[in-house]
Amino acid sequence: MLTLAIEIGFALIGLAMALNLWRLVRGPDATDRVLALDTLTINAIALLVLFGIRAASSAYFEAALILAAMGFVGTMALCKYLLRGDLIE
Fold this sequence. Notes:
By secondary structure, the chain is mainly α. It has one domain (about 1-85): Orthogonal Bundle (Helix Hairpins), CATH 1.10.287. The protein has three helices and no strands. It starts with a helix and ends in a 5-residue tail after the last helix. About 5% of the residues are buried. The model has no long low-confidence stretch (mean pLDDT about 90).
């Protein structure tokens, strides 16, 4: 039963990632693209967690934590760049 739920989760997260990639490419504004990239990062974290559950390995969970930290820093840097035009004051 758990394997079926994990496989359905893989399919749905894959669909969400495809839709986020479409918004990233087609987004009318830079802010839409930043939001799509942030959401794509969150979906990648969910995918890593599902891989970790399926493989019963804690390495995937550690990778998800690292990706979450890097995604947060990247999103903040892009938002600061869009607001001010530079990263270093």
